[in-house]
Amino acid sequence: MRFCLYTVPMFLLAVMSWVWRAWHYFGRAPERLSWAETCTLAVLPNSPVLIHSGRNRARLKAMRDTLLKRLLKAEILGMQGLQFALREPLPQKLLALLKLAP
């Protein structure tokens, strides 16, 4: 019982973080992201500021591309999908989130 009480909030926090990052980086809901965008979020470290300072963008792209190739190997993604995804650029800047509440 104690495990559930600690695990469920952490899971919900991870889901909310996933949705927030999709909107903040790409301006779209997670279900509308491309393979490359989804893989970028999946490998994004816990300190995303490091990526957008410009220092580690090559490392982020390499990690994203590695994950895409693993999806090809697992036959989740086809060769044509991989080629399109590898050509997609990384997000250039964080997007401002909409403020719905006053």
Q: What would you note in describing this structure?
A:
The chain has 102 residues and is an all-alpha fold. The chain has one domain (2-87). The protein is built from five helices and no strands. The protein has helices spanning 2-26, 35-43, 48-52, 57-73, 79-87. The longest helix is centred in the first third of the chain and has 25 residues, at 2-26. The model has no long low-confidence stretch (mean pLDDT 79).
Write the layout of secondary structure elements.
Layout: H1 2-26, H2 35-43, H3 48-52, H4 57-73, H5 79-87
List the defining traits of the structure above.
102 residues, 0% strand
Strand content: under 5%
**Secondary structure tally: strands:** 0
Write the element-wise H/E pattern from the N-terminal end onward. HHHHH
Shape: globular
**Count of spatially separate domains:** 1
Radius of gyration (CA) equals: 16 Å
Question: End-to-end span in angstroms?
Answer: 39 Å
Provide a count of the helices.
Answer: 5
Structural class estimated from helices and strands? mainly alpha
Low-confidence stretches: none
Brief summary:
The protein is an all-alpha fold.
